[in-house]
Amino acid sequence: MEPWSVANSFQARKPILLPAPSAPRFIKRKTAGYRFHTFLHLDAWIHDSSNLKESRKEIFAIKNSTASVPLEPLNRKPPPQDEAENDLASGDAIRRRFLEFYAARGHKVLPSASLVPDDPTVLLTIAGMLQFKSIFLGKAPRKFACATTAQRCIRTNDVENVGKTARHQTFFEMLGNFSFGDYFKKEAITWAWELTTIEFNLPPERLWISVFEDDDEAASIWHEVGVPLERIKKLGEEDNFWTSGITGPCGPCSEIYYDFHPERGYANVDLGDDSRFIEFYNLVFMQYNKLEDGSLVPLQMKNIDTGMGLERLARILQKVPNNYETDLIYPIIEKASKLAGISYAKSDDRTKTNLKIVGDHMRAVVYLISDGVIPSNIGRGYVVRRLIRRVIRTGRLLGIKGNAEGYFLPELAEEVINLCTQIEPDVKTQRARILEELKREEYRFVQTLERGEKLLDQLLTQALQSSSDAKPCLSGKDAFILYDTYGFPVELTKEVAEEQGVSVDMIEFDHEMENQRRQSQAAHNVVKLSAGSSRSEELIHSTSKTEFIGYESLFARAVVRGLLVEGDPVEQATKGSNVEILLNRTPFYAESGGQVGDHGLIFGPVSEESEGNVKIEIKDVQKSNGDIFIHKGVIEEGTLVVGTEVDAAVDVNLRQRAKVHHTATHLLQAALRSVLGPETSQAGSLVTFDRLRFDFNYHRPLMEEELCEIERLINKWIGDSTDLQTKLMSLVDAKRAGALAMFGEKYGEEVRVVEVPGVSMELCGGTHVNNTSEIRGFRIISEQGIASGVRRIEAVAGEAFIEYVSARDSYMKHLCSTLKVKAEEVTARVETLLEELKVAKNELSAARAKAAIYKASAVVNKAVTIGSSEIKILVENMDDMDADSLKRAAEYLLDSLQDPAAVVLGSYPGEGKVSLVAAFSPGIVDMGIQAGKFIGNIARLCGGGGGGRPNLAQAGGRIPENLPSALKEAQAQLLAILTERVS
Question: Where does Zn(2+) bind (predicted)?
Answer without folding.
Answer: 662, 666, 764, 768
